Each structure stands twice: as C-alpha cells, then as structure tokens.
TrEMBL record, chains A, B, C, D:
The keyword Transferase applies. The modification N6-(pyridoxal phosphate)lysine is found at K191. Its cofactor is pyridoxal 5'-phosphate. This is Alanine--glyoxylate aminotransferase family protein. GO terms for biological process: glycine biosynthetic process, by transamination of glyoxylate. Belongs to the class-V pyridoxal-phosphate-dependent aminotransferase family. The keyword Transferase applies. GO terms for molecular function: alanine-glyoxylate transaminase activity; L-serine-pyruvate transaminase activity. SUPFAM superfamilies: PLP-dependent transferases. Residues 11-321 form the Aminotransferase class V domain. PANTHER family: ALANINE--GLYOXYLATE AMINOTRANSFERASE 1, AMINOTRANSFERASE CLASS V. Substrate binds at R334.
Length: 378, 378, 378, 378
C-alpha cells in the first residue's frame, strides 16, 4: 500500500515512536501483576489530559465502542434521553440510545452553527425530565465544535447526566471534565491523540457509576458493560484480555502530548490560519460558527467536485484529504489538523498542493492558500 | 515491566516480525481504497487456516467480542439455544445467549472429559428443537478439546446451527469449517495465531447470514452487529474505523503460519511429549480424555501450591506459566504450547525450570520432566 | 539525548525505513553465500547513482577511509601527485598523499570560488607530470562545488588519474563517473545518501585497478588496501567481516533515492531558493561562485556570533545547523539541505526559526528569510 | 535472504533490542555535545567488561581495524616485535607488524595446544629485546584459548608491551586487563558482545600512549592512527564522524551483558557440556589443550565432509555452523557458542540437528550429542 500524507480528520499519522512502542515485546496482561499498574498509569496520564479526577478506563475497540458502552451502561428501557444534535454524529447518538430502550427527544441545532446555549436553555425550561443527555464536542463531519463548557454545567442544573462524544476534540481542543461537570466523556486513540486506531477511553463520574450500580434492569451487553470494570484494579481482573500492544502505543502517544508543547495553542493557531487562508482566498467554510481547531470543512468550489480534488491531491501530491458522508457527501472538503498532523510545515505543503490542485481544476481564487496561511500563521 | 518467557495459554509470545509489522506506517483505513483490498486479503488467508469458503470477518476487539457478536446477531428473544458444555468457557456461553433473550438448555459433559458424542446424540433424540447450539473447541482452563468434527455435523442433522468458540484451538488443532459444517467459528489473535491481543475473527456460513437477514427483532447492538458488515466490500465501508496496525500484525502472523512448517503436527508432537513427560514423572493431568495439544493442564502436586510454583518459576527462571480460575482456581497448573511457544527448545527450558521448581518445593517425581520430554519428543 | 532536527551538512536525518532496515535480523556475511549477492546488488544500485560501469565497493568505515584507501592503494613512494584545492577538504588530501610517500604539488584556487578550469589548464600546460590528481567535488565547509565535469576530462588529456572526494555531492549534485572519466570517486553514507554514518563506497576505474596490480611497492596497509578486493565476488571472500546491518540500511537508502523523485532537481530547486532568500534578506553568502546545492554557507552577520545563533536555534527551535572549522571557524553558518533534509517543508521551518533567531539577536535583515524562500521556491 | 540460526563463531545472532537500538533516530555525532558524553559512557561500560582503568576507544570498522591501528600506532620501522603464535590469527599478526616496518621474530606454539608459558619463558630468557609482542587470546579457527593471564605479566618482566587480539574472547572468557598488565587489548562488536559487525574497540595502557607520543617516525596512517584520539574528549572532536547507530547498538549489547547473568560462567558451562558431548559420542575435538568456551572445533568425521554436514544443517535444519580456512580448511567443524548463541536451548537444538545430520551421513557415534549435552549441562 502507498502511504500518503494523511491530512484527514483521523486516523492521523502515528509518530514512529508510538508505532515502535506497539512493537515492544509483550507480557501476559491477564496474569502479569505489573501490567495492572501499567494500565493504571496510562489511565492516570489520560486523566491529566481530560483534566479530571474521575476514573478513566481504556476499552479494546474503536471510539464507537466507548459511545455504545456509555449508552448500554447508563440507559434502562424507558429512560428519557435528550439528544442534543447539530450534525451527523450528534444525530447518530439517538440510534444508540434507542437500541438500549431509551425514549429519545432531540434538540436540533442549526447544522452550520454551534449549538445555541440560550435556545437550549429555553428548551430545557419547558422539558427537562431527562435521565441523561448525549452530545458531541466536535462534529467531525461538519467541523463544528459545540460549547460543551456551557452545555454540561447547564444540564447539571436540571440534574441531567451528560455523555459527551469528544473523540475528535480531546488532544486538540480545551477540555475540563471536572470543571465542566461532564459525566461520561469518551475519546478514541486515532484522532488528536495520534495513536493507532483500536482503543477508546472514557472518564466516568461518580454519579455515572452510581447510576450503573443502582440499575433495575441488567446491562444488556457484556462487551459494552462498564459496570464489570468497577473493581478491576482491586481484583486485578479485566473483563477480557487487554490490547497490550495498542496500550503501549497509546501510553507513548499520551507521553508525547504531556511532555510536548502547548498542543491546544498549536491547534488553535494552525486551525485559525487555515480558516483565514480559505476565507482570504474567497473560498467558503462550511461552518458559520463553532469553528473546529482540529478539522476544517470547506464547501467544494462550484468549478469542480470533491472526487476530482481528492484524486488530484492523491495522485499528484500523495496527500490524502477527506470529503464527508450522509447529507454532506460531495458537498465539502475536510482537512484534518489533528495531533501529529497539526504542524505548520504539514499544512504548508498541504495548502501548496491544494493551490496547485485548484488551479489545475479551474477554481478561481484570490491569491494562494499557502501564502495566506504563511502570512496568517505568524 | 519485566518480560518473562510467556508459557501461558495465551497471550503467547509475539514474534518480532509480527510486532514490527504493527509498527509500520499507516494509511487511513476508512478512506484508502487499498486498505479494503488488504483487509480482504488477510481474511482470505484466514479462510485457508479455517479451511472454509465462508466469509471471514475481522472485528476490532478481544475474542469475546466475536463470541458476543455471534450471539447478538443470531439470537432473537425467545429462541431456544442449546449450550453444550464441559467447562468454564462452555458454560459461560449460556450468559451471552441469555443477554440476547435466548431460552437456554444445557447439555453438561464431564468436566474432565471431552464431550461424549453418543450421549449428546441421545440427548438430541429427545430434544432437538433448537435454533442453534454453542460449544467450545478447546476448553482453555481445563485443557480439553471437544470433538467438534463430530458434534457439528451431528447438529446439522437436527437442523441446529453451531457457534463454535475456537479461540485457543485454531492455529494449533486441526480445523475444517466447511467439512465439519460449522456455522460461526470464532477465534482471537492472541492464542495459537500468536499476534497481539486486540482482534477477533470469525467465519460465517451462508445459513448464518440468512438467519441474520431474516430476523424479526432488530439486533440489539451496534458494535456486536454482524449484519452491518454484509456489504462492506461492495460498498467500501466499515461499521467503524478498523484497527489497521493490529491487522498488519495479524496478517504477518498468519503469513508465518501459512508459510511455515506443519504447525498442526508440531502442536501434536510437542503437546504429546509434554503430557507423556508429566505422566512418566508420576504427576497427574487434569483431563481424562480430549487432551489439548495447545495447553496442558496438570493437577497441582499436593506438596505445594500453585502460588508457590508460579512465584518460583517467575523469580528464579523468569518463565510465566498459568493457573486457572473459577472451580479450577488453585487446583491446576497450565502450560501453554501455542503458536510461537510451541517449540521444543522453549518447552525444554520450561520443563527444566519446572523440574528445579518442583525439587525445591519438595514435590516427589519419578525422574525429570525435562528428560522425559527429551526422550519422548524424538 | 535530545534529537534536534538536523539541518547540518551531514549526518542528515536518517529515514525511519532506513533505520528499521538496519534493525533487520542478520545472517553471517562471511559464510552466507546469499550475502555476497546482496552486497553485489547494493553495489549495482550505487553504480546507477554514480552513473558508471566501473566496479563499486563498499568499505566498513567513515568516508575518510575511502579517501585514504584510494591514496594508499594508488600512490607509491615518490609518485608526483597534483592536489587541486580551494578549501579545507581539498588541502587535507595533501596530507593523505604524503603519508603514502607522494611528492605533492598544489594547485590553489580561490577559497570563495569554484576551481577555475582555464587557470588549471594553464597550470597543467606547464607541469603535467603527475601520476594522479586529488580533488573535491563539494567543499562541504565552504559550500562550493567544483566543475569536476570539466576537470576530470581535462586531467585525462594529460594522462593524469583522478581521485575525487564526492562525499557531500553524490545524491544531491549531478554525477557522471564514466562520461566525466573519473578514476576513483568516493562517497560516504551519511551525507546526501542519508544512511547512518559508518560506510564509505567508491567506484574504481579499470585504469586504477591496473595501477594497483602493477605496483612495485606493496600497499602499506591492510584495512586501506583496495587491491585485496580484486576477486571478492569470484572467491566469495571479503578482507574482513562486512557491516551487514549498515549495508541493509544503505541498500534501503539507495532504494529510496532510485525509486523516488528527481532528487537532483529537488536539491537544485531548494538550494537555489535558500541562497536567493539569504541574498534578498541582505545577508552574505560565503561562496562567490560554485554554489553548492547540498549545503549553503553564509557569513555570520556582524551583529552576532555563530555560537549565539547556534545556541538559540537549538534551545528555542530544536534545530541544529552548523558552523565550520579551521580558517572558517566562527566566520560562517552552514545549513545542510542534503538528502532527507532537502525538502521544502524542512527548510521552511528552519528559515522561519532563523528569522526569529536573527531578530532576537539584533541582526538587520530585509524582510524574512522564510517568506523570501516561499516566494522563490515556486 | 533466509535467516538461519547462526551457530557460527561470529557474527552471532544480534538480539532484537540491540538491533532496535540501531534503529533509533540519530543526532549529529560531530556537533551534538551530548554525543561525546554518550560515547564516553559506552566506553566506560566497556571498561567494566575489560576490567580496566585504561582508556577505551571505539573505532568505526571491523575488528581487524583495531589490530592494524595498534600495530600502526605503536610500531616504528626497525622495531623488533615478537609474534607469539599457535594458529592462523596469531601468525597473521606478523604481516601487520611488517607492514609498519617491524622486524618480526616468531615464537611458534603447537597449533593444537595452548601456548606453553614455560617454553615461552625459556625463549625469552634467550631473546627478549622486543619493543612489543603480539598474541591472540582465543584462536577462533582452532578453538584454542591462550593463557594471556600468564603471558602478559611474563612479557612485562622483560619490559615488552603486549597487543592482544581478544576479539572472540571478551564477553565469553574471563579478562582482567589491568591485573594481567595488558597494553593494548582489542575486541570486535560481532563476537561474544553480540552486536552487529562494524565496530572495534580497544583499551590502551598509559605506557602504550607514551610510546605513541614519543615516536620518532610519524604514524603512517590516518584511519589507523590512535594518537589522533588523545584529546578527543577534552576537545570534543573525533578524527572522523562516528558510527552513531552502530554505537547505539553496541551500548545496548553491553548493557545486556552488564545487567544480565554471569556470562563467563554461562560460557564455561555450555562450552564444557558441548565438548563433553562430542567426546562422549566418540568424536574428536581439534584442540588438545586450551579449550575455548566460545567456540568448539571438532575434526570432521572421516565418513563425511564439512560441505556435506554444512549443507545438510542448512537445508534440513536452517542452522548455520562453520568450517575453517587456511590449513584447517575442510578439516574441522566449528560451533560457536558466543554471546547470544551461548544458551542451552540453542545448543540443544543445534546438537539435535547435528545428531540427525551425522546419522544421515553415516557417521558412527556413541549415543546422541544432544542427549550427552543434556546429561552434562546439569
């Protein structure tokens, strides 16, 4: 397989050190007592990124497993669940909640804007009898981040638990799980953390643990059952054999983040410069507000199609960008600037390649994306 | 972490080439069209090991995910399910079937013997109104293999589907999925395949696909929903981002098996020599029949305890063996001879270390395990 | 050790694939017949880069070993040797020739200019009784390349053999060993080839082999004796155990070059843009002619010192550039753009860091190095 | 290339950790001040193995470079040198001494026995006007170790310096450089140290340094000139760019030795058991005394040839053993049990393969090499 430069919104490039950490010799993670300490240590490092004292667990599976596990473990048949959504991922939460028997009510936001907290408050003033709410920090398909720092505390005022999909935000956008009173916050290894895909991890508040312990109906899953983990450390027992090699990689990726630069500032700076470059060139961003610093979504210029752009970028420049799917299919181009990809030099050559691509495809632009970027990044 | 020689019944040692394959640079497995071909190719290699024309899927998660996915996808509430069991893992299947609404009937075998096919036939002659049966090829905790080559065809005579946990058998014991008419056969990466833990893969018969397609009740899970994979290749779409690095490793591990020696004969030869060594030394095997060639389970000599043996082996010899759990806790010692661990020289030093350990702990033996092994292996 | 971005004129960054090639399991290179084929194949690939049909040998040692081996093997006591020099490396050749008994005559060029072929011709018209001449393709300390394409054919007109140090040129500058009638051309692994330091390789013309075979005095060295290699392939014998791991790395590095882009054009384009950026910023290049495309040497701005620049670049930007030594010590700054370092994005961030460094140290500049570079590289 | 199990007397297998250490990212070893500390630290670790306070240097080249460098740096034209020899390597020293102008006198020992110290003393009582003596600790081709612990102090009594080739001894046989008053002791990376080939390292006594400093004639080499290294640390300057990746590997290999088991005892035990197995089987060792613990040399049984044995071992067992060369060509088989290869389980399978090979080739043996080994190793 060719290995293009991955400027997609996840999986990102995985640093050589992280990949080599996965290649380390293994021990038996079920039986080696040292592994339980290692696992805990990695969880503790994740707590620093999440800014939380809540317990963090790492599950063997993709990000969506974390999301399903949260729903499966908290929701009982008949529970009223509020699905706060302004995009494809937010709306998808509804299906997961319904699988586990929830009666779901949706709060729909404008798909091109961040959730409006004022409107949400008005909604809640009318109907707030929800056990929990689901929401998405960064809507990866549209490149919109929602004000979870305001929404989660607001939900708490109405005594509503929150499950927050933060998969493409953590490691790029600010997060303060405790301060923002977030109950379950889930993330995946392959986005801003820049580890290989295969792991999901989530923080679980005391209140969320209590809900699980006091359920009436049993949790209708084993692999998605978070309650099984309650005493994993005390009992030195995992519900299944842990993905030790992937955890080696995750641990290394997390170390790179914690020991490295101010990654939130780096994402902010690069994200902003990319957006300004696009706007200055006369091209159109998809979001009207809530601009994500981890992925930029722009509307496909009318002179061409996503497929033409994508093929040209791959063949002529060996750079992979992304389109989207569902109602955004063929409408937008997405450039990921997450984790290992969120470096000025990578965006520099990506935008230079995009300049050439747009020029070849007859797209009219004011100036050059690359040069606008260079001017704006200072 | 120290890295002892892992002579446990999985995870096994992972060969350097397999670990380094996991360290290869990645592409985006959601978007890179080449990855769909790569994934398919790996599945095709697994088909050769499974000896099947059935579709094989690789899921991102531990072996138990495969087991749950099979139950979740095939079972509808109220379905009658036969749980054929003679050990901890077989019995555990009952719980999974019940989560998804099955009415489970158990056929209990002697825990120290392979399932008796004649008895099973008698049982079935009386009650055979089952949608499916669950069974375990190799009961890892007890070291007993069941005659799945006879059981599965027998079930077919009664029009009963089979879900067979072959996690610790495939790659060590003979398997003929098509010839033996097995419907869902599931395996994990970390046993005889000797890849890192984190993947499960399963073969699905045409009949099993049809059952899924003609369900009345929806499948009560997303992550465990096999039906979602129906057209993955045609649509170039996976239900979630694939664990590409783990699949790189699996592909390499499978290549090692397919291009290497006669691994089934190697497991047979080493397994047999280990058992004979134990018996000649006057020690007692746990199984009375159905001796597994991938794991040997012996009863803890009365002069000592598992904990003493285990600690001594780890501290003095840096070799990790295993005990068991549930009703076998503290009763047995298990030596894994699976995949990368199933080589004469590794068993040679393991048995030599065990000789010294038993001697130190005052266990009476006839001669030496190591020397009996050397004599028997010829 | 910290691992700064190495923008020095060698050793360069070594690509992960090359480093991992060094980590491959080894065979016995003295006894394994396959290794002789492997070594030959790597030599054949080098021939393609050298553009020669002459034999190429790889020696276990740094570049200077190749240079000494050429002198030791060709020179007999009393031989008249012409040392064509315009820099530190060219002058150093004199010492090597003298160790092996040569009577050396120097042709001195201007240290800031390429060797003037017309002047050399005038010199040779007066005195041309030389067995051989030594010269340097790229004077790494001053960043000057000499017109070896004209000099070597000119020497041949006077029947003078050439030994050409091409260590920092091959892999970046054009080379045509056969067309330019070069006798011994030597190179090292750690410059534009971007392998790890530790190997030197050289091409040897038929005439050079004949000189060695017809010597009167024995070669006064074993490790530097090229004549020992005469029948290495036929006899499947090396004078000493070969550095197999380093050769694995070299082979991979050479593959990257041969299968990659037009590397000579890439070096030309980047080298030129770096020089133009420096000139446009009002800073001074050290060379007045013969500008190297693999290393740029600029005069240290009067407002500061090399040490200040170097420390700031290392501490604030984690980028390592180089000064020089001998009469150039503290006078110049060198930026390597060789092999793996000769990519636009690396020079982009290096020049951006240099902008900030110069600004901090009070250096007056017209505009920005980085932006001039971005403008010029198009 | 196939990768057989290397049971040759060097290069040995290189441990994965050592190979991966070579794959680490590099810094510029000429310019990075930290590298000078790293190099020094590795030298200090080597001092512990050498058991010396003398300076240790690591040179970029194969073991023979160390040997030549010692001769080149210490010998002046006309010096009288005593070559103490009882084998191919000892005799070869003569040529090196002569290249650098020595008048060499040989003390010849029995090629099948260790040097007889009493005879040497008698020799020295008659003629002892030597500047230095050359000798070999372990004659790798014949598998004989010489009593350097007695010879070196004896030489000192006559005020004769010693250059000791310890390439295949250090890391396997006892060494006490200071206690035994050895002047230059040289070793290579690829024998008992089990690093990749490509480095040589040597300890240099105060007296040897003084000899170099007070030479009348200049040292007739650059690459072999040890005097250039005199102030490398103070001046932070190496005579040439160091092989940093190889040194990473060496450092890791040395760590493995220093942090591991009692490697001298391990070599003694395994070497002895191999020899006893051969003798008990009725086969003949080549040495009559001075049995090496790092390599065993046996006479080719009359029923067959080395080539037949070697081919069978390679093709049927994928194990590489060695023959020898010069006057031992086709006469002996050599089994290396050096460093990483000197483990019971590797010798177990090697001897088992040899049993099968000898049986197939019609060699008459008493019992089995493998079983004799198993009996003797206890």
């Amino acid at each position: 397989m060719k290995k293009p430069l991955l400027m997609t919104p996840g999986p990102t490039q995985v640093h050589e050190d992280v990949r080599q950490a996965m290649a380390k010799n293994i021990t038996n993670p079920d039986l080696d007592q040292d592994f339980f300490e290692y696992y805990k240590e990695t969880c503790n490092k994740l707590k620093k990124i999440f800014k939380t004292e809540n317990e963090v667990l790492i599950l063997s599976g993709e990000g969506i497993l974390g999301l399903e596990a949260a729903c499966a473990s908290l929701i009982e048949p008949g529970d009223r669940v509020l699905c706060i959504e302004n995009g494809i991922f937010g709306r998808g939460f509804k299906d997961f909640a319904e699988i586990y028997g929830a009666e779901v009510v949706c709060f729909e936001g404008d798909p091109r804007k961040a959730i409006d907290v004022k409107e949400l408050k008005e909604f809640l003033d009318k109907d707030n009898d929800f056990k929990l709410a689901t929401l998405v920090y960064c809507e990866t398909p549209s490149g919109i981040t929602n004000p979870v720092d305001e929404i989660c505390p607001l939900l708490k005022e109405y005594n509503i638990l929150s499950i927050v999909d933060s998969v493409s935000a953590i490691g790029g956008e600010p997060i303060e799980v405790d301060k923002w009173q977030m109950d379950i916050v889930l993330c995946g290894s392959q986005k801003c953390i820049s580890a290989a895909p295969g792991l999901t991890f989530l923080s679980i508040s005391e209140e969320a643990w209590n809900i699980m312990k006091n359920r009436k109906a049993p949790i209708a899953s084993f692999y998605c059952n978070l309650a099984l983990w309650e005493n994993w450390y005390e009992e030195k027992w995992f519900p299944y054999t842990q993905s030790i090699s992937d955890i080696y990689g995750l641990d290394c990726a997390v170390d790179r983040i914690l020991k490295g630069d101010n990654y939130i500032e780096r994402h902010r700076k690069n994200g902003e410069a990319v957006r300004k470059a696009i706007t200055k060139a006369g091209l159109e961003l998809y979001p009207l507000s809530g601009f994500s610093n981890t992925v930029t979504t722009m509307i496909v210029p009318e002179e061409t199609t996503f497929e033409e752009i994508n093929n040209h970028m791959l063949k002529e420049h060996n750079i992979m960008i992304a389109g989207a799917f569902d109602y955004l299919k063929d409408k937008v181009i997405r450039i990921g600037h997450m984790g290992e990809n969120c470096y000025e030099e990578k965006l520099y050559i990506t935008l230079k390649a995009l300049d050439e691509t747009f020029k070849t495809l007859g797209v009219e632009m004011k100036g050059s994306l690359q040069k606008h970027f260079v001017d704006e990044i200072d």
